[in-house]
Each structure stands twice: as structure tokens, then as C-alpha cells.
Amino acid sequence: MKASEISRGAYQALIQELGYGGTAGFLLRSESGLGDYTKDRHQWL
Asked: Alpha-carbon distance 34 to 29, whole Å?
């Protein structure tokens, strides 16, 4: 499987689960490197 195929499948799964707005928010947050995953995870759980 090519990297582009993996990325396409991942984007499709995100959009299906989160919608376009949620996917955009996730990508903006995760690619910027901001935040504290451990702290955020404790809040989610």
C-alpha cells in the first residue's frame, strides 16, 4: 500500500467519524504540536 493510499484512508476515516469540521480541528491541533497529550487524555477519560 502506498503512503498516499494510507493517508487517503486515514482522512476518510476521520471525516466519517468526526465530520469535516472535526477533522480540520484535529489536523490543525495535531500538526501544530501544541498541547499536552497526557493532560488532555486524562480529561477525556
From this structure: 6
- The pLDDT assigned to 14 comes to 95
Other beta carbons within 10 angstroms of residue 40's beta carbon come to 11
CA 14 vs CA 5, 8, 37, 39: distances in Å: 14, 10, 18, 22
Q: How distant is the alpha carbon of residue 44 from its chain centre?
A: 15
pLDDT (tens digit, 9 = 90+) per residue, 7-43?
Answer: 999 999 999 999 999 999 888 887 666 677 788 888 8
Q: Cell 476521520 maps to which residue?
A: 14
